[in-house]
Design goal:
By secondary structure, the protein is mainly alpha-helical. It is 54% helix and 7% strand. The strands form two sheets. A three-stranded mixed beta sheet has the order 1-2-3, with helices on one face. A two-stranded parallel ribbon has the order 4-5. The longest helix has 35 residues.
Length: 289
């Protein structure tokens, strides 16, 4: 079966937004649409993975309105909010974070290779989700794909509902050190030296472990992105110009008119053609004997 992505967002008081499943298909199977639509939104996606376009839609249509609505519910429209986020490449869109900054929402990204210790969903919610899903998922007797999808649709909403219980979410925040003031204890478990070696240098703008809604940071990010786009555009223009100059300097191929050649072959002195045939025939006889 193809890969699919589950997107979840939770608040420190135990509240969670409606989860999203990115399904790799232009048409959602009926067994998934009927059973998941009431508890989980399903978005069609070509690959089933998070992309720049999908994340933009998720941030602008789910995260931002959900945070604003939650803040209004508590009658704290002027209060600042904090969003903790991983550093997936799809997050590298400073224009999105400008909207969050304008809405008084501070966004902080996790340090690379640290989410297994610091990301609250990894510390509790997803572990409970996997355990509950493996318990509730019943392997169908037939190998039919539609039956397997139906079994997933039966198990996933129940498992997700259990994983996103308020007590589980709050416990995850505590384990990650966000609510317990024990962040120093969590960070002290990091190794002194990284165990992962990068094979190639990352040339993207470094937004890992940063407050990416800081205005100075956003301005620098946008300027670097603009410079990069201009360089790519200049390189494309230069390559186009070089190709044009190369094409102009290439010698022109002489076009032969087949009709003219055909007429030339058939025109001429028939006596010369007959003599040439006799010469070829005589040379062939001499060669054989």
């Amino acid at each position: 079966m193809p890969n699919a992505t589950l997107c979840a967002a939770a608040a420190a008081d135990g509240y969670s937004l409606k989860s999203i499943v990115l399904w790799p298909s232009k048409k959602i199977p009926a067994e998934l649409r009927v059973m998941l639509s009431s508890t989980i939104n399903i978005w069609e996606d070509n690959d089933g993975w998070m992309t720049d376009a999908i994340f933009r839609r998720y941030a602008e249509d789910v995260l931002l309105p959900g945070i604003v609505e939650r803040r209004t519910l508590y009658n704290k429209d002027e209060e600042r909010c904090l969003l903790l986020l991983d550093s997936h490449p799809s997050r590298a869109q400073p224009d999105i974070w400008q909207k969050f900054a304008d809405a008084s929402i501070d966004v902080v990204t996790y340090i690379p290779h640290s989410t297994h210790l610091t990301q609250l969903l990894d510390r509790g919610v997803f572990a409970v989700l996997k355990k509950c899903f493996n318990t509730k998922y019943v392997v169908p007797s037939s190998s039919s794909v539609s039956l397997r999808r139906k079994a997933i649709a039966d198990a996933l909403p129940q498992a997700l509902q259990t994983a996103l219980l308020p007590e589980t979410i709050v416990s995850s925040f505590v384990k990650s050190g966000v609510l317990s003031n024990q962040w120093h204890a969590v960070l002290s478990t990091f190794p002194d030296e990284p165990s992962v070696t990068l094979k190639k240098k990352n040339r993207r703008f470094d937004f890992h472990g940063k407050i990416i809604t800081d205005q100075d940071f956003l301005d620098e990010w946008r300027n670097q992105k603009k410079m990069k786009e201009e360089k790519i555009r200049d390189d494309d223009d230069e390559n186009t110009m070089e190709k044009k100059l190369f094409d102009d300097e290439k010698p022109k191929k002489r076009k032969i008119q087949r009709k003219k050649v055909f007429l030339d072959d058939n025109s001429g002195d028939e006596r010369k053609q007959e003599n040439s045939r006799k010469i070829v025939k005589r040379e062939l006889i001499d060669y054989i004997y």
